[in-house]
Amino acid sequence: MSLLSALLPLLAVYRAGIAAILRQLGRRRRCPPPAAFPTQNGKVAIVTGGTKGIGYQTAKHLARLGMHVIIAGNSESEGQEAARKIKEETLTGKVEFLYCDLASMKSIRQFVQQFRAKNCPLHVLVNNAGVMLVPERKTEDGFEEHFGLNYLGHFLLTNLLLDTLKQSGTHSHNARIVTVSSATHYVGKLHLNDLQSRCSYSPHGAYAQSKLALVLFTYRLQHLLTANGSHVTANVVDPGVVNTELYKHVFWVVKVAIWMTAWLFLKTPEEGASTSIYAAVSPEMEGAGGCYLYNEERTKSADIAYDEELQRRLWTESCKLVGISDESSRVP
């Protein structure tokens, strides 16, 4: 296989990422200092994938604002170390780690049981964890890993925590669900008849599909929350092109390009976390849901993401896959 033919599939999927880089040349922003947002004393947040990268920076800033932050991750050692470092850097003891493997439905349910046993509220859920461009492999439950971990894991986690979020939100201070997607959702295609990519696997296509699914999920979730009169909002964020460990599975030529240009074109993890933090605590987002945010601004997602019938069908199928009842069937 020639070098050009090997790169074509990657370039096809990452044209959205390239466009994002070009936008960032004139619009890069430093993560706002925590003082720019109101203190969050007494509030509780869960951040998945909070041991490194964007998730770590998100957890650290929320802790610095006074939140009790629970980091959910699949490495006990990394999780405990992340909690220790955040406590040291922020001078707060309100950070802890709870094990949660988003590639395991059983682990997710155990995590939720552990959290509920604390009898504490939940004001912010940040669905941040994910994998990117991994070789074809299955989760513990037999799902394609991008779809199973990036999307289904967060779908189940969010649904299991919804009651607590609803109880914690108030008319003046809604609980918030923040889900991290990607510009690659613009080129994603949702294959409802082959969500597990069994017919033809492409790591680039599978990743883009999982990120599109997260946008569709967020819009449908907000519709259901509004219909039920819940004091909870759901938004989806695009962190931009960020220099994190997620790129370890990309083609070697791209790795070299990232190594050479990261300082100029790519955001730091702290900069990448800024929109997640904004969605989680900014007064400007109070009561606002169903938004796609990039660089702390509401922007338009892919046209297909607004297809309400596709949102409904994905939600129904997702409920079947993770084994929960589809309460949305009573909502138009």
TrEMBL record:
Catalytically driven reaction(s): a di-trans,poly-cis-dolichol + NADP(+) = a di-trans,poly-cis-dolichal + NADPH + H(+); a di-trans,poly-cis-dolichol + NAD(+) = a di-trans,poly-cis-dolichal + NADH + H(+); a di-trans,poly-cis-polyprenol + NADP(+) = a di-trans,poly-cis-polyprenal + NADPH + H(+); a di-trans,poly-cis-polyprenol + NAD(+) = a di-trans,poly-cis-polyprenal + NADH + H(+)
Transmembrane segments: none
Keyword NAD: yes
Signal peptide start-end: 1-19
Classification via Pfam families: adh_short
InterPro entries per record: NAD(P)-bd_dom_sf, SDR_fam
GO CC terms of this entry: extracellular region; lipid droplet
EC code(s) of this entry: 1.1.1.441
Single annotated GO MF: oxidoreductase activity
Pathway: Protein modification; protein glycosylation
Annotated compartments: Lipid droplet; Secreted
Superkingdom field: Eukaryota
Main location: other
Record CDD domains: retinol-DH_like_SDR_c_like (cd05327)
Keywords attached to this entry: Lipid droplet, NAD, NADP, Oxidoreductase, Secreted, Signal
EC supergroup of this enzyme: oxidoreductase
Keyword Secreted among record annotations: yes
Stated role: Oxidoreductase that plays a key role in early steps of protein N-linked glycosylation by mediating two non-consecutive steps in dolichol biosynthesis. Acts both as a NAD(+)-dependent dehydrogenase and as a NADPH-dependent reductase during the conversion of polyprenol into dolichol. First catalyzes the NAD(+)-dependent dehydrogenation of polyprenol into polyprenal; polyprenal is then reduced into dolichal by SRD5A3. It then catalyzes the NADPH-dependent reduction of dolichal into dolichol. May also acts as a positive regulator of starvation-induced autophagy.
PANTHER family: PHOSPHATIDYLINOSITOL-GLYCAN BIOSYNTHESIS CLASS F PROTEIN (PTHR43157:SF31), PHOSPHATIDYLINOSITOL-GLYCAN BIOSYNTHESIS CLASS F PROTEIN-RELATED (PTHR43157)
Family statement: Belongs to the short-chain dehydrogenases/reductases (SDR) family.
Protein name: Polyprenol dehydrogenase
Lineage: Eukaryota, Metazoa, Chordata, Craniata, Vertebrata
